Amino acid sequence: MALTALDIYKLLPKTNCGECGQPTCLAFAMQLASGKASIDLCPPASVEAKEKLSAAAAPPLPKVTVGTGEREVVLGDETVLFRHEKTFYHPTAIAVSASDDLPDAGFASRLAAIRRLSFERVGQRISVDLVALRCGSGDADRYARAAAAALDATGLPLVLLAPAGPLAAAVRAVAPSRPLLAPSPEDLVPGAKLAAENTLPLRVRARGIDGLSVALSAARAAGAASLVVDPSPVTPREAVDFATNLRRLAILSRNRDLAYPSAFDLGGFPDPFLAAALLVPKYGSLLVLDSADPAELLPLLTLRQNLFTDPQRPIQVEPGVYPIGAPNESSPVLVTTNFSLTYFTVRGDAEAAKVPAHLLISDCEGMSVLTAWAAGRFTGESISKMLAECGIERTVTHRTLVLPGMVARLSGRIEELSGWRVLVGPQESSALPSYLRRLPPGAFLPVHG
Amino acid sequence: MTLPAGPGGTPVTVGGQNALPLLPEGEHPNAPAVGMEVRTGPQELPPALSGAIGPFAGDPAGMARKCAGDWGARFLFLSLAGCHPDAGGQSVSEGAAVVREVLSATPAPVIVGGCGDEEVDARLFPAVAEAAHRPVFLSYAEEKNYRLVAGAALAYGHGVVSWSPIDINMAKQMNLLLADLGFPPDRVVIDPLTGGLGYGMEYTYSIVERIRLAGLSGDAALARPVLCHLGDAWKAREATDASEASWGDVVARGQRWEETTGLACLAAGADLLVCRHPASVARLSGAAWR
Amino acid sequence: MKHSSNSSNEAGSVRFLPDGVDVPLVIEESLLSHALRGGVPLLSPCGGESRCGKCRVLVDGETRGGGDPGVLTRAEIAAGIRLACRCFPSPENVSVTILPESRPARLAAYLDGKDLAGDEPFLPLSRTASGGNPLGVALDLGTSTLAGALVDLSNGTVLSRATADNPQMACGEDLISRVVFAEETPGGFDLLRGRLLSGADDLVRRLLETSPVPGEVTDVVAAGNTVLSHFLYGISPSPIRRPPYRPVRKEYPPVTGETLGSGPATARAQWRIFPSLGGFVGGDVVAGILASGMHRQEEVSLLFDVGTNGEVVLGNRDWRIACSSSAGPAFEGGEVGCGMRAYPGAIESVRIDPETAAVEWTVIGRGRPGGLCGSGILDLCAELFRAGIVDRAGRFTPGAGAGRRSTERGDGFIVVPREMSATGRDVAFCEPDLKSVLRTKAALCAAAEALLRAVGLPREAVAHVYVAGGFGNFLDLRSALTIGLFPPIPLSRFAPLGNASLAGALGALRNRRRWKEALSLASGTLYHDLSSDPGFMELYQRALFLPHTDEESYRFVLEGEVSR
Hints:
The complex is a heterotrimer.
Chain A: H1 5-11, H2 25-33, H3 47-57, E1 63-66, E2 73-76, E3 93-99, H4 104-115, E4 118-121, E5 124-127, E6 130-134, H5 140-154, E7 158-162, H6 164-174, E8 180-183, H7 188-198, E9 202-205, H8 208-221, E10 227-230, H9 236-251, E11 263-265, H10 272-279, E12 286-289, H11 294-307, E13 320-324, E14 333-337, H12 340-353, E15 357-362, H13 369-374, H14 380-389, H15 392-395, E16 400-403, H16 411-418, E17 421-424, H17 432-438
Parallel strand pairs in A: 3-6, 3-12, 6-7, 7-8, 9-10, 11-12, 14-15, 14-16, 16-17
Antiparallel strand pairs in A: 1-2, 4-5, 13-15
Helix pairs in contact in A: 1-2, 4-5, 5-6, 6-7, 7-8, 9-10, 12-17, 14-16
Chain B: E1 2-3, E2 12-13, E3 33-39, H1 47-53, H2 60-69, E4 76-79, H3 92-105, E5 110-113, H4 118-131, E6 137-141, H5 146-156, E7 159-163, H6 168-180, E8 188-191, H7 201-216, E9 227-229, H8 237-240, H9 250-268, E10 272-275, H10 278-287
Parallel strand pairs in B: 3-4, 3-10, 4-5, 5-6, 6-7, 7-8, 9-10
Antiparallel strand pairs in B: 1-2
Helix pairs in contact in B: 2-3, 3-4, 4-5, 7-9, 9-10
Chain C: E1 13-17, E2 21-24, H1 31-38, E3 56-60, E4 63-64, H2 74-78, E5 81-83, E6 88-89, E7 94-98, E8 134-141, E9 145-152, E10 158-165, H3 175-184, H4 188-210, E11 216-224, H5 226-233, E12 255-256, H6 257-260, E13 270-273, H7 283-292, E14 300-306, E15 310-315, E16 320-325, E17 346-352, E18 359-363, E19 371-372, H8 374-386, E20 404-407, E21 410-416, E22 427-430, H9 431-455, E23 462-468, H10 477-482, E24 494-498, H11 500-510, H12 512-523, E25 525-527, H13 536-543, H14 551-557
Parallel strand pairs in C: 1-7, 8-11, 11-13, 14-23, 16-25, 17-19, 23-24
Antiparallel strand pairs in C: 1-2, 3-5, 3-7, 4-6, 8-9, 9-10, 12-13, 14-15, 15-16, 17-18, 20-21, 21-22
Helix pairs in contact in C: 3-4, 7-11, 7-12, 9-13, 11-12
């Protein structure tokens, strides 16, 4: 398993020479342990230390890339079994299929539908990553033309699912776009040679872990190096089992013979949506789906967007105005930060007061009130700006703000900048109920002018 | 852990596993169970739900019979939202009467949820505990009210749902507080607060996964079944907004949104799922293998 | 709220009693500002931010504001009691009586520290003076307290010791408040710097006055936190408050007192300031490491410095890593309603009978108790928990019982009823106080766990735990572990150090090799910034429980000693 910072420290020269840019050897060891630095930065390190540390730093699951440039898709290169242990780095790639035996117009509209599977969510674009091209025609030229057309119409990298002949034709047409070659299992060896000759990634498909073990040897013997594996499960349950075993072999056993990113062709699967939704969290690196229904793809892409985030980021609440109960134009206005625990606590206590109110959640990068204040993120300026911009001045007729007691000192600055009057609330959120109930009725009278 | 049923009904037993979910390893004596929510009080149903459960608005007993009888819900989550002052404010005794009615309408196991108003719930839980003529679970006990809820449950032989806001440590702390009161651990279910897909679901995912891993590695206070209530999935705009044509059919999409949230919870290790769409019961039960 | 008429400097004054000091009246200035201007001692731990409610005064004459209903009772407001930071004088003459509990007291406490590594020959920094006997001064510049010792540099004898409040306290109890004060108040930096220098001068004067041997101060060695070291050295501490929280400098080349601006007694002396490790781990901690000797051992030690801030160091002779916890000053009496410093009248230990809830306490000095100091607060929390009056979440359990009362500040426990207290008010420990202690202890414990996790060491590997800081000598370790102030490490591995900063400064003064040792150990100690440690918040939440969410480990450590 991974080396601790002290394990690494013991291998270092312990001179605190600073050549690596870190103040001490321990600091450098901590950087190495968290994968933020490489042993190459330490010139005085012994040969033995360098060997040990570079071996430990190599990713247990190799990295495979499909496509080029902005649309490049990275498969594998993961280091943990559970996202809370560090993070999942490379989102499950999602490919939607198109078949070359569609009539030309139908093929074009299918590609257009795939291209539309791209959505804007919370400031990010989430999209289908690849087009999986099935060879329904059996015709090499038609397949090659379809590959070129798919690339041209969508700009997305391709997964080429085809027998050896059509596959070779398509490679001649689109090799520079770095497609993933997915030959039929009986054409594995010619497919692998094709991949080797063109230095393209190859999907190896065989039944189960044992089947893969044999097929992988054949693919490697044929010269293919950049590999993904499809253990061809027949049920969602089997798919989860295979994907988990492959990932464990890579991360726990560091098995180099079977440790490859997993790819699942869910076409013809009994319940492809269910399998896809389970394989996003459970170790699928690439999924091929036949559905292009946005009602299915939007939830799947959102699931992927959720799970492939850094779990160590503090839980934040979206900044904005939150109603407590059913507030009106003369209800109190409270403000706090967007650290989720702060928000939950304040909301709970404000609700307990049974006084309807508007709760302003200020963007403080997920810091609590005192931390945000100390770091200069919860200031008279930031609160005044929020008052002016969040729309609360249209919602309420008064101009009175209840400020957390911990930051009472901001009241003068807020009053000066925003023109709002500030009431200093309690130090502790737990005192909010009694505080809110005791506020004089005239505290939130309308202002004019 | 068992959610008890009434005469002629099938209790729901979950937990007892010694390995991670969905995998053919270790022992999984019980599969996860999928239940449905029955809610009192006025509700505005999104398009995907109004067709499916709209006809039962205002008829909790009828809805309960339908859920358990026709839709395959193995247990019911009866939410007494109608007792909230902002929701028309059914009285506490009216709320308790609904509980009796539902318990008589079906022998399925029942979890009774409060209305979310601290003061009303402080009166509601004792009233429900007394009114329920067979054992139920009360949802939920949190740090602020656990003495009251657990006290009411203890007095009448009910179980409790132990709630904490997406934090593994708080989940454990709640269970330790309940244990300090002498509450039997086999009558406690953890509710880690389930964020809807797209809106914090990933935090729930990791917390559930960690609770399960901690329980499996010997942390007794976390070795409890986990309940995920998928209701928040229906707060997402993506699940309810019919105006975005490029998002596909809103009815199919809403159901998929809930289903996807539930599948992620199953993958993380949830034992009990509460959903609102009848189709989700069947779909999620299909994935709740052991 | 601003008054348009510019009425400053009208005739009139504010008279402060019992000192009888008259301060010219400025109508838009608070009574606290008047007191500051007039040099009238008045407690204001929060620096005038209206947070602490401790600057209570009795006014006679017309005033505006300061009658905050959340802090003062209706009866108190009616009696004329106001918060000086929120109360403004009217144009008439006003007389203001500073209430006893709002006056900073003074006591020679917190002076002794152990020097576990002080085994070398006497080898002073210098021993020649132009006139008279060469003397050295060791200074510990603390956020709340300044402490000093005078040494005869011809033989190493300690001649006198003294302590005083840090006069910067009136500009903010915590360091961040002072940095903000220096930034935002015109002349604030100079004011704070001047107060620190004059506080040090006063201390040195008292050391010399009480010394049996006359002489001339040739050397001063000062250990202080980074913010105070910056003020002392005349550099702005502003960058320390903002990410990436780095100080302007970590080393302070020796200068003469004259250059620094110190008073005549040390003007010709060389001042050596201990190097800082980072923005919130300063020379006081370096001096503490020096005194603990952890930097010479092969075994791994933990060092806690519990004071107004809490700092933690982990390491051995090869490596060390240090951090500052966001622990508040709960154990210095701050943020706790009935808290006070360890002055006469402070309760220093508490026992509660679990059957009857009867309280027994001991008080520093003679006389009636006025509040609780750090060790008393720690004991009280542990006893309340043991007696089942407080649950693991830090809430009072329901039920009336002896000593329980519902107060304006929530549920409370009456430690001393008003008939027996020095102030005539109940000494009551309330739910917000409990929460404050819980946060402080969680921050300290989590800081230590964060260091262990950062280097990847299990806590079983810790062979020694040194506890430095004001209450280190007096703290009941069992109480500390009962509430989880420290990680669960067997009691036998703990050693109290007392004021280790002063002990370290003394050590360096008496042996120049140790001064060099301090310089090199500082550069080999890594500063770990907890605010950028992504795992810290979780460790903090884990520790925010009594004794800890990992209660099994505490039960194991305290087995047979503490049971509930």
